[in-house]
Each structure stands twice: as C-alpha cells, then as structure tokens.
Amino acid sequence: MTTLEERVRRLEKRGALTRAMYAHAVRCDDGPYGLEVLDDWTADPFLDSGSATFSGRENLARFYESLPASFVIHYFTNLVVELDQ
Fold it and tell me: Taking CA 9 as the corner, what is the angle to CA 18 and CA 7, rounded to the nearest 5 degrees?
C-alpha cells in the first residue's frame, strides 16, 4: 500500500500535467505558432494528431509551422492522465 505522502505526490503530478496541457491549448489557441510552443514539450517529443505522427523537436516544429492560426479552439473532454510512478 502507498503512503499518504506518495498519494499526494501523484495527485500533485497529475494536477501539474493537466494544467500544462490546458496552458498549451491556450497558447495554441492564441496563435500564431512560434517555436516557443516547443517549450511546452519534453526534449524528445512525440505527437499523434489523429491523422499523422510527429517525433522529435524538428518534426514537431514543422507540424506547428504548417498549422493555420486564424481560428483554433481546443475543447478537452474526458482527460486521462496516467503516471508510471
């Protein structure tokens, strides 16, 4: 069984990840997409957009540069955040 401290730490990590995802969506919605949007990602990012996949910062940068920023709205539902430990 996990300790209360471990459980609280996991909840805090989950909350931080959720806030980061929402902040990234707002940054994307504000557009246009500059390379600072990559700061929201890990050093070795992977994105599955539903129609294509992008691996690595260079490919992810090309993905963002290809997006039209004239009208974008993110709508999250059923957000699932899973932690390994």
Answer: 105
37 by Cβ neighbours in 10 Å (0-12 / 13-18 / 19+) ranks as: buried
pLDDT per position in the chain (85 positions), as tens?
A: 689 999 899 899 988 888 888 888 887 776 666 778 888 888 899 988 888 899 999 999 888 888 776 556 776 766 777 777 6
- Residue 27, domain extent: 4-66
Q: What domain count does the chain have?
A: 1
Report if residue 72 sits inside a domain: no
Domain assignment of residue 20, yes or no: yes
